[in-house]
Specification:
alpha/beta, Arc Repressor Mutant, subunit A, D-Maltodextrin-Binding Protein, domain 2, 3 domains, two-stranded antiparallel sheet, 24% strand
Length: 302
Amino acid sequence: MKMNRANKFLEMTVFITVVDCNSFIEAADKLNISKQAVSRYIQALEERLQVRLLQRSTRKMVVTNEGQSFYWQAKAIINATEEAENSLSLDQASPQGILRVNVPVSFGILHLAPLWQLFLNKYPQIELDLTLSDRVVNLLEEGYDLVVRIGNLENSSLISRKLATTRMIVAASPQYIAQYGMPMHPNDLRQHKIIMYSHWARKEQWGFWQNGNYNSVNLTANVYCNNGDSCRQIILQGGGISKQPDFIIGQDIKVGNLVEVLSNYTIEDYNIYAIYPSRKLLPLRTRCLIDFLVTELQNQSW
């Protein structure tokens, strides 16, 4: 006998509430049902799925790996259902709810911070929970709805959408070049002080193209730093040569505070992506943010 769909939704709702509250008792209070009823729903769900979702004892409760996976899928279904129902009662769907977003530090401060209030003005019922971090976060395990990342993406079950492109530039201050000389070939970089951003993939291997020929040079840095703005400050003060995106040092190049090194060579561009769990059942608030960022960033000239 097939189970009633309403009961499946109720089981998922109870499970999500238990995980969010990290407590059967608090979940029962929130749902206005008894603790015994909560336990019965969780037990019925586990028996129907034939998998353990929660490990529980008298002292604590732990969500299993299977439980974490089911949590995010079930939450997406519940969110999508709620938004579908809301859209029926409105002439135009009104995105709402909390949107947890993780963005890189420098890009987030320089180019995304001015956009957030514009987004909130457009969608006043959305609440933003913003985190700035350059480390690679686990979107699913850490509960983010969307992350913005820069660089080449690894194969993943996650979905990405390109927001913009940033050109990488090798640069130094005019004072540093006057003192140590301008490198003429990529191999010359081995004789210079290198200020290296430590989060780039293959950070110590810099690649250069010229007339169809590829030159790769492996470098050891004098300074490793996990923040692009700090790298910029070091090279502005004559500390060495660094490879940085134009959204950080493009203006410095334009006004002459920094000079481009090996400008007769071409180096890689990096794409800027919005990354999210799935195209299916994507909450309306997440979709609105993605579309907003695409519109605002697509014609940027750093």
